[in-house]
């Protein structure tokens, strides 16, 4: 533990927060405690769990609302950003803000180097065979749309089949609905088992020579379950089908090796992995990317432009039309530096323990229903729990937790309406953790949840 703390100090010297300059505008709902925003010094942090050791690098977590410390359990929607990422963004805009790939002056050269270095960091982080296999996009949603429009419209026709699961995020469903409507291809949905996980045997049975692409999540943002991607790729390859993996909930939380997984496409978003919003990435096998038509037209993605036609650059430039999110991509590179310094294996092991603690602690809440598989020796849930409490609406739970206890969770369908209908519910509450959270915060959340249920039950 001490070695890890020392490594973090070595990686990010002087990372003790950004000071009391972070002041939230007045809120109509409650007063903010500006003085509590400044993070304590690293030396003051107890060297115990990974959460205790790293949260000092996240100044936003050190806030209070009406004397209650913020508990941020909405990491499935977006993660918080360490000081090193914010410093990197600030340095880019202050010191070398310039467009990339288009200038020979010093600022442009420095920006281009940092931007392409971020691409190399992403490639190394997911063990891509070549940095040219990494395409920067606005987010994972755009990355999936890129594949759907560029690969899907050119390769699918009437009678072909697209296999998905009912547990997919809307971003992994809607683009393929568009494509199926334009091409005549059919969508086939894999259902759930009695353990509330996608039925892998059913998926295997769906695969045939009609199957052209399989679109699956790596980790469910609602169920917390993980799919066996390597097996799915093996089965899909036997029938000549491509595989696209939504890795938004896995890349930030565990080691992900795209060469080992073997999928043709994999997408993830920066903002869920401690990086800035507005940037994500697509990993695609280079030979497939090279065969695909551009998704958007304009600057940067061309080789030559004539009056009646254009020729296109090689990947990844072919898919990065216009000025990209330069600072954000560089910030993503800084986030990867931060995560790599801690070590993804250590993050994964800690979050497995924390996720199990969350699940087991929630079971102490009367009349609670948690969705997804129970953790066991062989089943490790992601560090999130979607749940409902009998006769209490999840949005009421989330609102009272926020207003009365400063606990931030999410309620709704979590961009997974098909899954919620399959579960027989309209909405759920979701608590989702990251490595900078602690068991103490889980205890605070569960106590606050019990008090919230009592409060709401008295008023219903």
Automatic annotation (TrEMBL):
Residue ranges constituting the Aminotransferase class V domain according to the UniProt record: 71-445
One cellular-component annotation, GO: chloroplast
EC top class named in words: transferase
Cofactor(s), names only, from the UniProt record: pyridoxal 5'-phosphate
GO molecular function: cysteine desulfurase activity; pyridoxal phosphate binding; selenocysteine lyase activity
Keyword Transferase: yes
Pfam entry (one): Aminotran_5
Catalytic activity, as annotated: (sulfur carrier)-H + L-cysteine = (sulfur carrier)-SH + L-alanine
Alphabetic keyword roster: Pyridoxal phosphate, Transferase
Name this protein carries in UniProt: cysteine desulfurase
